[in-house]
Specification:
2 domains, two-stranded antiparallel sheet, 2 strands
Length: 367
């Protein structure tokens, strides 16, 4: 039985946060290598795996943290879940408001709000139901959501304009409070698509249980590889009927991304716990100790230099501090494309240094 703290999980958490910063902070969105961009609609790039990997990690962590509450949903456990849900959700709203605080066009949802909802519902389910019941709930979520997408949409039910996810968000919240990055109001972290994200958390919870009840690390690695590989293949086969789609968080995407998360965790367990190759992982351990704090901080930093810090270019035009850094420091060094990548990597290093200082001073900001 594997019961000790999983260093590989800490590393995976840190890697995921570092990648979140990288894909969210290019020097210019006009110059980004394709693997560091989300799929336009259907499909899955490496960037599309970052968010489900984080929710998967949330689920694995749940398995270890909820054992101390015993069986069933208790008042103490429910209060803990509600408190954490509220803090994460409100931080997401704050990040959406900052720095203009325009409530009239406030986007209600986002990455942190999705994390809060998936964590909150997933936590209550995991504390209330046993393993077999959770498996049944997992299947119900996947097939039930497939049915909602198929019967709730119109014309192209998995397309951008007429899917049920967009219809529900428009009906409840109105287009002023929905993400518009797709050219029309559609929120990739909307209300209805939060349902299958709970299943991603449950996959992590199942993985945590699998690891703990394995006969040693080697056995857990083999089981994770098998179950992860099968899950990813099932998701891929299912995609011929239900496309793999991150914005809709389709059920096939849940199985595909969750399966790959299992495989990658197995790889890290093999490298770190079996082979003992650990030194390379220290920076990611630092990232993983304050993950949500550094995510929020990086988001507020980017918005600050985009909207509050102003400068002038060589033609005397007013530009943002973000654009000034990219054009005057990174482009001269590495050109447009590689300069954009170097901009993102440099910010990862800066944010890592902050997490390192917190780690050295044993400051762990619980969110």
């Amino acid at each position: 039985m594997v019961a000790k703290r999983l260093l590989a999980l800490d590393v995976l958490r840190g890697l995921t946060i570092a990648l979140m910063i990288m894909v969210n902070t290019p020097g210019s969105w006009s110059y980004v290598y394709p693997p560091l961009l989300h799929s336009h609609w259907h499909g899955c790039t490496p960037t599309d795996l970052v968010f489900p990997f984080f929710l998967f990690i949330v689920g694995v962590s749940m398995w270890y943290s909820f054992k101390k509450y015993g069986e069933g949903l208790t008042k103490k456990g429910l209060l803990k879940v509600f408190k954490r849900f509220s803090i994460i959700f409100l931080l997401g709203l704050l990040l959406n408001l900052f720095p203009k605080f325009n409530f009239e066009n406030l986007r209600f949802f986002g990455v942190l709000q999705r994390i809060a909802i998936a964590y909150g519902i997933g936590a209550i389910l995991c504390m209330q139901f046993n393993y077999k019941q959770l498996l049944a709930i997992f299947g119900l979520i996947l097939f039930g959501y497939w049915g909602l997408l198929y019967f709730g949409g119109s014309y192209d039910v998995y397309g951008l304009e007429n899917n049920i996810v967009r219809k529900v968000d428009l009906f409840i919240f109105g287009e002023n409070h929905i993400y518009k990055g797709f050219g029309i109001p559609f929120d990739p972290e909307g209300l209805l698509s939060s349902i299958p994200s709970v299943a991603t958390v449950l996959m992590g919870y199942f993985a945590g249980r699998l690891i703990e009840f394995s006969d040693g690390v080697s056995h857990s690695v083999k089981k994770l590889l098998i179950f992860g590989g099968v899950s990813a293949l099932l998701g891929w086969f299912w995609s011929y009927l239900l496309p793999i789609n991150k914005p809709l968080w389709t059920s096939s995407y849940v199985l595909y991304a969750g399966g790959l998360a299992m495989v990658f965790l197995a790889f890290l367990l093999w490298v770190i716990d079996i082979k003992g190759i650990k030194n390379w992982a220290k920076p990611f351990i630092h990232f993983g100790t304050n993950p949500l704090f550094i995510f929020v901080f990086s988001g507020m930093y980017v918005k600050t230099i985009q909207y509050l810090v102003k400068s002038t270019n060589s033609e005397g035009e007013t530009i943002s501090g973000y654009q000034y850094l990219y054009e005057n420091i990174f482009v001269p060094i590495a050109g447009n494309m590689n300069g954009s990548l170097l901009f993102a990597i440099s910010h990862i290093i800066v944010f890592w240094f902050l997490t390192y200082i917190l780690y050295r001073n044993k400051i762990f900001i619980k969110i």
